[in-house]
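CO-FOLDING WORKSHEET

Operator: S.A.
Ligand of interest: magnesium ion
Run index: 228
Mode: holo prediction, single chain
Checklist:
[x] sequence pasted
[x] SMILES validated
[ ] output reviewed
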Amino acid sequence: MSAAISSRIVEIEESVLGKNQEAADKNRRLFAENGVLTINVMSSPGSGKTALLEAILSRIQGRLGAAVIAGDCATDNDAQRLRGRGAEIVQIVTGGYCHLDSEMIAKALPEIDLSATRLLFIENVGNLVCPASFDLGEALKIGVLSVTEGEDKPLKYPSLFARVDAVIVNKIDIAQAVEWDREKAMRALSAAAPHAVIFEVSARKGDGLGALLTWFEDRMPTPKRSGS
Ligand SMILES: Nc1nc2c(ncn2[C@@H]2O[C@H](COP(=O)(O)OP(=O)(O)OP(=O)(O)O)[C@@H](O)[C@H]2O)c(=O)[nH]1
Ligand SMILES: [Mg+2]
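OUTPUT RECEIVED:
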């Protein structure tokens, strides 16, 4: 690749990320004004993001206002699964794009009553690479790693794991059956995500979800809107 072409690619990347950052900053201000804790959930396809959100919404139903923006390349399957648990659900179908960006989130926000929302989960498109580069305006980035994926994934996809505030190790109910090497995984996580809090959970059985929810609730901001 010539030097001219590669410098043009760098310019385009910078302009895409710069535009993304502007909308992310606006989203973040809106979340802060409304006292919404926004959580960007990222992982490979099938690690259990939607299953986790189904379990979390069922637990907080009637107690905490919650909403989910679910990103998917092609379907609204996740939104259909998440409905009926007392939360506002918005599906973004990206039409093939491998990640959500902050402008997509900004366009979805009018569909959510932020003043009644304390927790807003964003289920990113299943992908361990692209979502990591796009700030959506969230307060917390969460990585999900399931025991069926292999203990080395944090080392193979370091850009995502280096950015997350917490890692949820999911599907621990089947850890033994798939010979999950917990020590090896924890070594990989402490190298790739040294600052992340680790939660070991089963979205299916409910193990570990109480501690995870307490961690979220401890981080919920108070609304800054005047009169509230
Ligand atoms: N045994 C077990 N299976 C789980 C658990 N969590 C999720 N699964 C299963 O894993 C499969 C994938 O779960 P999803 O929730 O669709 O995963 P996802 O990360 O949302 O997938 P994408 O949206 O496609 O990226 C489903 O068959 C779930 O039932 C768990 O804790 N234990
Ligand atoms: Mg999903």
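REVIEW:
The CA atoms of residues 107 and 113 lie 13 Å apart.
The pocket of guanosine-5'-triphosphate (ligand 1) is lined by residues 43, 45-51, 78, 126, 170-171, 173-174, 202-204 (CB under 6 Å).
[x] output reviewed
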